[in-house]
Amino acid sequence: MDLVYKEKTEKIISVEDRLKNLSLAYKLVESENADLPSLVDGKKSYIGFYKMERYIDQLDREKEQWYYCNC
Question: Is 49 helix (H, G, I), strand (E, B) or coil?
Fold first, then answer.
């Protein structure tokens, strides 16, 4: 997963911290062309802080479901 941003702001640091806390593999990509920050996961992109946070929330819920699975 790539965290693409133009400038490393407090919000970017916050997103990065959430990725670290979930132990997700990610790469920071600084790009002058990034008008809005985004998370790129394979072929899917989540553009803007709202969509990035929602996607991270989804990954967190999936992790909890897997962890508590009584399979």
Answer: helix
**Separation CA 29–CA 5 (nearest Å):** 6
Each residue's pLDDT tens digit, 14-43: 999 999 999 889 999 999 999 999 999 999
Taking residues 56-70, report their average pLDDT.
Answer: 75
For the entire predicted model, the pTM comes to 0.85
Instruction: Report the distance separating Cα 18 and Cα 50, nearest Å.
Output: 14
Selected residue with higher pLDDT from 36 and 67 = 36
3-state helix, strand, coil in the chain (%, to 5): 45, 25, 35
Please tell me the distance from the alpha carbon of residue 1 to that of residue 28, in angstroms, as a whole number.
9
Whether the CB-CB separation of 17 and 58 falls below 8 Å is answered with: no
